[in-house]
Structures are given as C-alpha cells and as structure tokens.
Amino acid sequence: MKLEYKLTLKDYKAAFRLHRRRRMSRRLVVWLGPILLVIGVVGFVACSVANNTPLAAQAAALTAGSLVFTIGMPISRSWNIRRSFNRLFPSGEKDRISRIAIDDQGICRELSGVAELKLSWNGIYDFAQDEKITLLYTNKDCFLLWPTALMSAEQRAELSELVARHLVKR
Predict the structure, then answer these.
(1) Residues 117, 90, 8, 147: what is their CA dihedral angle, to the nearest 10 degrees?
(2) Mean pLDDT in runs of 10 for the chain (170 residues)?
(3) pTM
(4) N or C: which end of the chain has fewer CB within 10 A?
(5) Where are the beta strands (DSSP E) in the chain?
(6) In terms of Cα–Cα distance, which of 129, 95, 122 is closest to 17?
(7) Phi, psi torsion values for 126, nearest 5 degrees
(8) Could you tell me which residues are beta bridge partners of residue 111?
C-alpha cells in the first residue's frame, strides 16, 4: 500500500488529540487544574469563614497556581503543537509532500527531498486509528501519522491485516 499526502495543521492537531485519548493519565491531566482551582476556592472560603489566616493564604496560593495552570496549559499545548508543525513544515515550503509505503517488509516514509525513514515491523511499537487520523507508533510518544481519509476501505482492511499479522503487543 502506498499513500501520498500533504499534512495540514488540522491533521496534526487530530493526531495529538488521538494520542492524548489513548492513555488515561493524558486524559485526566487536563482536569487537574480545574479540580485544584475548585479545591483552592472552597478552601479559601472555608478558611476565611473560620478565621484561619495561614490556611486561607495557602488556599489562595493554591487557587492562583491552579488558575495559571488551568489557563496556561491549553494555551501552551496549542502554541507547542502549532510551533512543532511550523518547524516540520515551514510556511515557505510549498512542496512538502509525504509518502508512505507499507508492506510485509515494513514501512518506508519519505518527506519530499528532506528525509526518508525505513522501519521494519519490529520497530513499530503500537497502532492507533480513528476516522480522522492514523498513527503508527515508533515508541511510546513518537509516531508516524497520515489522514485516514486517504485510504479506501480495502486499504484500511489491508493495513489492519498487516498490523494484526506483524505488530507484537508490548
């Protein structure tokens, strides 16, 4: 199976969204800031009513820190994804076409004129796919990606068969 595609920022964001959904810890970390914010506000109010000034000050510090975390994490994540995409695909380069060939021997990914990566199936760590994006993991946090919409139903079935046959569950 051979595919040729040009990644967009939308595809790149979809890949990181799918990657984040794959582990429970990545799903829960986005809720850590708001939970700490609520705990800090409730603690501040309770300590203020009880005239416990030192604890109220600590609760206010927790509230301030969790507010920064709650607002800063999504903004930071968005900036980092955009910056990473722009580093891989600079806006001045118009011909950044990616090609991927997948067969029984392995995977060969080429970024036109820039890089080529050849992997055997032993180098593939995991596989993930949804209706928007397909990911082949080379380790826990590093993956090859391409839009799922590029593949026909037959190609999706062929990919599933190749993955089932060659991927070793770790």
Answers:
(1) 0
(2) 90 92 84 94 95 94 94 92 86 80 92 86 91 92 92 92 82
(3) 0.76
(4) C
(5) 2-5, 98-102, 106-111, 115-120, 126-129, 133-139, 142-147
(6) 129
(7) -160, 175
(8) 98, 115
